[in-house]
């Protein structure tokens, strides 16, 4: 059993099953950052307000999940800003002060495209001017990457992922991958087996004691049946879940 800190991040909320997931995490004393899509937040604000009132942090995951490498800077700003305003409304409705502004790019595409590997989606560094301009936009809107302690993977630091404004990840649970046969994951059994792999420099390091983890799972109706067993597997590994430091 590897004992280390894990930061849980949940993309693509709010789904119609978000409240059940919130309650499950509360029962297990697991904090998390939920990254909201604006298009979903417009339809289902109540579970987000419920999560905020129960101590969870909401992050921005764009409005409708585009590839940021394929849209103009103006559209990038709109994607971020519209969702930001919707989140402000949710915090106001919850009567809770927003603790921080945190952002995650859809598909791991920071503006230069992405590569798909066995470990998940990895950002490309092409189109440097576009990437830098989006980072500047996030900064001007008040976004900042929280302090994730103990992320020590060489591949992560070499890619400069801790230096960016947005939040990336070290481990993708690949809960979404059963919907695409090319990833070789047909269901829960394959997902859980992959979590036991030990390839830390390729994004599969849950069993590596030398680094903490930023873990990605999704809040999608298609993956709802996978959420609890995946979290239970993470708990069985002895991971201690915390929130990062916001400043």
- Mean pLDDT equals 95
**Residues in helix, %:** 25-40%
Q: Biggest sheet, in brief?
A: 6 strands, parallel
What do we call the CATH topology?
TIM Barrel
Strand percent estimate: 5-15%
Specify the overall morphology: globular
What quaternary form is this? single chain
Runs with pLDDT <50, length 5+?
A: none
Alpha plus pi helix count: 8
CATH architecture: Alpha-Beta Barrel
Number of domains: 1
SSE succession: EHEHHEHEEHHEHEHE
CATH class: Alpha Beta
Q: Which helices and strands occur, and which strands form pairs?
A:
Elements: E1 5-13, H1 18-27, E2 33-36, H2 38-43, H3 46-53, E3 57-60, H4 73-94, E4 114-117, E5 120-123, H5 128-140, H6 154-158, E6 171-172, H7 188-194, E7 213-218, H8 224-236, E8 240-241
Parallel strand pairs: 1-2, 1-7, 1-8, 2-3, 6-7
Antiparallel strand pairs: 4-5
Helix pairs in contact: 3-4, 4-5
């Amino acid at each position: 059993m590897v004992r280390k800190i894990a930061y849980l991040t949940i993309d693509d909320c709010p789904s119609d099953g978000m409240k059940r997931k919130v309650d499950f995490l509360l029962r297990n004393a697991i904090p998390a950052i939920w990254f909201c899509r604006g298009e979903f937040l417009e339809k289902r604000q109540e579970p987000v307000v419920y999560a905020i009132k129960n101590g969870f942090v909401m992050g921005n995951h764009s409005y409708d999940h585009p590839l940021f490498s394929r849209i103009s800077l103006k559209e990038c700003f709109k994607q971020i800003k519209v969702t930001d305003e919707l989140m402000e409304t949710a915090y106001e409705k919850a009567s809770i002060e927003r603790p921080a502004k945190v952002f995650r790019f859809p598909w791991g595409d920071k503006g230069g495209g992405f590569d798909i590997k066995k470990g998940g989606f990895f950002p490309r560094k092409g189109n440097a001017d576009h990437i830098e301009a989006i980072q500047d936009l996030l900064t001007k809107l008040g976004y900042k990457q929280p302090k994730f302690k103990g992320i020590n993977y060489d591949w992560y630091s070499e890619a400069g992922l801790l230096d960016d404004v947005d939040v990336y990840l070290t481990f993708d649970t690949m809960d979404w991958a059963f919907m695409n046969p090319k990833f070789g994951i047909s269901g829960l059994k394959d997902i859980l087996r992959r979590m036991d792999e030990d390839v830390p420099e390729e994004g599969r390091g849950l069993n590596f004691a030398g680094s903490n983890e930023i873990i990605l799972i999704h809040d999608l109706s298609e993956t709802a049946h996978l959420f609890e067993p995946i979290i239970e597997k993470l708990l069985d590994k002895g991971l201690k879940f915390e929130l990062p430091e916001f400043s």
